Amino acid sequence: MLDAARERFAADGYERATIRAIAKHANIDPSMVMRYYGNKEGLFAAAVSIDLKLPDPASLSRDDVGRTLVTHFVDMWEKNEVLTALLRVGATNQAGAERMRGIFADQLLPVARRVCPDPEQAPARAALASSQLLGLALTRYVLRFPPAVALPPEEIVAWLAPTVHRYLTAPYPA
User: Fold this and answer.
1) Is the pLDDT of residue 150 over 90?
2) CB-CB neighbours of 59 under 10 Å
3) Transmembrane segments in this chain: where (predicted)?
4) Of 158, 54, 161, 70, nearest to 113 (Cα)?
5) Is the torsion defined by CA of 90, 95, 99, 101 positive or negative?
6) Per-residue pLDDT tens digits for 50-109
């Protein structure tokens, strides 16, 4: 059921995905969805529950944090349609946006706090790093801009890692 929900949310977005379509995709009765998840919001929350599986912040080298994070995210985007569904829904639905903010705050912010030269700047720096990672994901996996889709993952890492690294570790701009 959750696999079917992930596929429908990824393909249709939150607004257009219906309980009936998800149930049909899963070959179950729609009442089963309601029984286990209550409503579409409950099903969505369960379907996009995701652990980014980021490296332990204490294990990250400050000198390689940009490359490590970008490589990790590109690998996840390439293999995990849940992230695509979450991005698609987060761009158009408040509940999806809140879910996305929570995931990044809980999982990316600790990394920023670990490597940022000024802990007070960690939230802003995590947001800047997120803007790069999510911008790439939007253009490559949702909007599917041909040049972004055509880039090999190693080239994406080579281009994006220095920017993410700078956002997280560079001195505050004067």
Assistant:
1) yes
2) 8
3) none
4) 54
5) positive
6) 777 877 777 878 889 999 999 999 998 888 777 777 787 778 778 778 878 888 888 889
**Range 28-31, long-range pairs (CB < 8 A, 24+ positions):** 28/1
Q: Which residues contact 135 (CB under 8 A, 6 or more apart)?
A: none
- As a dihedral over the C-alpha atoms of residue 48, residue 52, residue 53, residue 58, rounded to 10 degrees, the angle is -140
Residues near 122 by beta carbon (within 8 Å), at least 6 away in sequence: 109, 112, 113, 116
pLDDT tens digits, one per residue of 129-147: 999 999 999 999 989 999 9
Question: Hey, is 27 helix, strand or coil?
Answer: coil
**Amino acid present at 42:** G
Q: DSSP letter at 54? A: P
CA distance 151 to 141: 12
Name residue 3's amino acid: D
* Token code pair at residue 65: 């944090």
- In single-letter form, the type of residue at position 109 comes to L
Which stretch of DSSP H or E encloses residue 164?
A: helix 153-169
**Residue 8 in tokens:** 């429908």
The total number of residues shown for the chain amounts to 174
CB-CB contact of 44 with 9 (8 Å): yes
Tokens at residue 116, please?
């940022």
The token duo for 17 is: 């995905």
